[in-house]
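My main concern about presentation is that the manuscript never shows what a single data entry looks like. In essence, backbone conformation is discretised, so a fold becomes a row of integers matching the chain in length. An entry of this sort, consisting of the sequence and the corresponding backbone structure tokens, reads as follows:
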Amino acid sequence: MSASNSTGNLPLAAQVPLAFLMSLFAFAIMAGNAVVILAFVVDRNLRHRSNYFFLNLAISDFFVGMISIPLYIPHTLFNWTFGSGICMFWLIIDYLLCTASVYNIVLISYDRYQSVSNAVSYRTQHTGIMKIVAQMVAVWILAFLVNGPMILASDSWKNSTNTKDCEPGFVTEWYILAITTFLEFLLPVVLVAYFNVQIYWSLWKRRGLNRCPSHTGFLPTSSSDSGHLHRTGLACRTRNPGLMESAAAHHSKSLLRTSSLLVSLRTHMNSGIIAFKVGSFSRPESTSLHQREHVELLRGRKLARSLAILLSAFAICWAPYCLFTIVLSTYHSGERPKSVWYSIAFWLQWFNSFVNPFLYPLCHRHFQKAFWKILCVTKQPSPAQSQSVSS
């Protein structure tokens, strides 16, 4: 990550305030990311898989403000010419830190995608600390492999590293810059955008399912007809068998109708009681299930929104520099025009390290609680509480 030394010709009255602003900017990057690192160390509740990746991002951004910018300020403002050793060290560290910051954003996006799209398996899956650390280390290894070997080998296929502007030898080779731009910017943007679209698609499907809930019908089991009592063969001793038989027949028919009405009424009452009991038991369960689904949707929307903001900030901060480097690579080393817009695009990459802590970690309530714990800000007890404690 190099910029044209276009600010070295400024008068001293402009160089000193500009150096102060650059130093203040570097301190702000270190302070913002140091808060994230300290919050993770202080609060054990933050030691979750996704927060480990935010820690990795904060470490890479912290060293951008600690190493990359402080070495670059005297070089670009006061024409301090790096030696070959310092130049090589600065190039490797700066490329490594910026690329690691980008790849950490991709890793965070993938983790957010897993937590929303596969929420059940994500929560039940117990990822060991060694696997998390291996993923964090893999980010740094991949970030080094993008530019590190070419910077170290630049002297073998280029006469020497340009220590005046401290640029690697491959900055004039457009095809190498196209490959590095694809690996540093285009591929990460495509991956983060894909994960973001998949998150929104998963939320949209779950929202559609919640709009059309399935109503489960509870059909009470039909009661048996054992209530129908057929009383036949009534032995009635009477002096007039004919009259008694007709009266008994009429009486049995009325009893049959009455018993059928009673059974029907009892059946309706039993079905109503069963439906009431089933509804009373199922209503709290369905309500709690609906509440959990609503909370999951709100959580998914929040994660998707934060990921969209993270993607937008990354694209805005990196796209101008990648475009400038490819365009300027078509010029020869001594014929490249010096533009203030290129310097602004160059500093935008470092600005991404400044805004990263504020996009998600410092806006999360758990990180905020840890931040107040770092500052030792505790709620003072009321006089009544203190008096009760002393008594």
